[in-house]
Amino acid sequence: MTETEVQERVTSVGGFERVKRRSRLFLKHENFPLIIVLVALIAIMSKASGGLTTRRVNMLNILMQSSTVGVSAIGQGFVILTGGIDLSVGGIGLLASVMGASMLTQTIWANIVGHSVSTPFALAVMLGLGIGFGAFNGVMVSRVGIPALIVTLGLWQICRGIGFQVTEGRSVFTLNPTFAFFGQGHVGAVPIAAIIFIVVAVIAYFVLNHTTYGRSIYATGGNPVSAWLSGIKVRNILFSVYVISGFLASLAGVIMTSRVMSASLDSLKGLEMDSIAAVVIGGVSLMGGKGTLVGVVLGVLILGVINNGMSVLGADPAFQGIVKGIIIIAAVTIDYVRRGRAAT
Fold first, then answer.
1. Given 1.10.8, 2.60.40, 3.40.390, 1.10.3470, which CATH number is that of 56-343?
2. Which H or E element spans position 32?
3. Which of 106-120, 124-138, 284-298, 329-343 ranks highest by mean pLDDT?
4. Where are the domains of the chain?
């Protein structure tokens, strides 16, 4: 064997070892089981529906349907990583939806300003509401010290009450046609709603994994006292994650309103539970400080495949709720078991 052949053999063996090592790391990664679950669910739903769920149109539909829960779940993930929880996302999204629709509607009796406003103005108001209510949650949790569960649950009720006053319990239709872009528009074959979700996910991934702010979020959730002693402004971190969650909840309201071009008190019903379910399915610990953005996205897609598959199969909505409840309990149980083993 020549020297050149020996060198090539050594190089190929070294390359194989690197691939083998990387494969082992991938298989041990915390998100690998989620990928297996997602692929298995897609296969099961495809088999049960005779291939209907894996058609290209339906797969794109899953992405579009998941975008509403997805952007809200990313905000919820920021909050839960700090050890908090945001039950107000459904209320904030609802209020943003009905306020926007009530300004965009061309039906005079339903319009709260007397005429249909421009899409940019309505969009600014809707997102501004999310930021404002998120800031309220942040102040009450980080400055006043009220438990997040109480504050956000109360705000959820307040937002629903205001939404009822704005709409008088009626649905709002006939919106400015230009508003349809965010929920019904496409770039090629890809829905704009899905693109918004992907962009938000990429930005959130960068923030959590490549910035000091992201590391501070994990530190705050892991041990707020140690984080404070190390110089992290814990109260500012807590305040900011609720602002992010409120903003993304209102963005979810924008997407949903634009998709159906209407708003009602049933808009975004159950968004708070779906966002929490996606986060815990994705492996984010309810105790804070542990989890990944990739896991949250996978959790959103798993939930989307389940919801879409059961709808295609004609499952009763109540049964869908039962399934999601079981999944949430199972995911939280797994998290507690893992933490218990880690502590021993």
1. 1.10.3470
2. helix 32-48
3. 124-138
4. 56-343
